[in-house]
């Protein structure tokens, strides 16, 4: 096991090939010129029909804070249900996945992951923990907790999007990829395929994936979880337009929009919209483009897909991921699915 060092710098670098070779740190790969310009990605999807946004734009500093508040809401059963499964099953999961490294995708503050890290330290005495997230704020919180609670672990945070982060991971170590919070449900169908093709190709024969997925259930429970009485989810969703204005110099006006969400049963997904309350022109002078946002027209800001575990297992098998474990709660509201990369 590598010796732990205390210096946790924040590197901005095109040095991703050196990942893990240097000091424990939080790496940011943001300066990589191959990355898509976020402002352009926003403008492209805003000109699409229907207009929509990629989910990572939601997680600026305030968005990440609001998401943490959502996790505490009484209506938002997802976090505490997944946490309860991990509390009970972390030892079993870690025993089933003999790895040296845990890479967490869309890690946030990694609160629930601490159950897995505790068991990793108990069973294997140490290892590497590498959370990947676009939110530097969340990675810093995660780093501080890991440093305080698990000095035996080497921490390497990667402040990047999933795909760049996954590509920069050292593939020589047996690794458990962890993707919690039903974040996989935020992918639309084409993003889902692209993500699993990339992840599976990056995984070696000793690698595992632990996937947290929210399940199809009563519509009332689902709809309440995304339309809470305190309006935190609405703030979270509409905050994306503050972030968009900052990035694109656009003129979205939060006073001229409202939040609406519903469960689409055919697509088995919650859809979260911003609806224009007046016809308005949205301009992006730096990009010499604009659109007319008609009164009552919608922008699809985020989706949250709900899954049937068996069907998802069969689907992921076709990406070379073999199901080796299924952990759920007493209500069967949420599932943690464990996969092992198949040897082809
Ligand atoms: C739904 S939250 C889940 C957070 C945490 N895993 C949990 O279970 O509470 C999604 C997380 O993924 C991150 N995220 C969203 N899109 C991302 C992307 N394309 N690449 C990297 N991180 C992303 C967000 O910053 C956020 O922390």
Short description:
The chain is an alpha/beta fold and 344 residues long.
Tell me about this structure.
With 344 residues, this protein is α/β, with parallel strands linked by helices. The chain has two domains: 40-62 and 219-305, no CATH class; 76-215 and 308-341, 3-Layer(aba) Sandwich (Rossmann fold). The protein is 34% helix and 26% strand. A nine-stranded mixed beta sheet has the order 1-2-6-5-4-7-8-15-14, with helices on both faces. Strands 3-13-10-9 form a four-stranded mixed beta sheet. The structure holds S-adenosylmethionine (SAM). The site of S-adenosylmethionine has 21 residues, from helix 2 and strand 5.
Jot down its keywords:
344 residues; Rossmann fold; 2 domains; 4-stranded mixed β-sheet; 11 helices; 15 strands; disordered N terminus; binds S-adenosylmethionine
Small-molecule binders: S-adenosylmethionine
Number of domains: 2
CATH topology heading of the largest domain: Rossmann fold
- Count all strands and give the number: 15
As a percent range, the share of strand residues is 25-35%
CATH superfamily of the largest domain: Vaccinia Virus protein VP39
The main sheet comes to:
9 strands, mixed
Radius of gyration: 20 Å
The shape, in one word, is: globular
Briefly note the structural class of the backbone.
alpha/beta
Helix content: 25-40%
Which H/E pattern describes the elements? EEHEHHEHEHEHEHEHHHEEEEEHEE
Average pLDDT, all residues: 91
Which strand order does the major sheet show?
A: 1-2-6-5-4-7-8-15-14
Unreliable stretches, pLDDT < 50, 5 or more residues? 1-13
Distance between the termini: 30 Å
Q: Number of helix segments?
A: 11
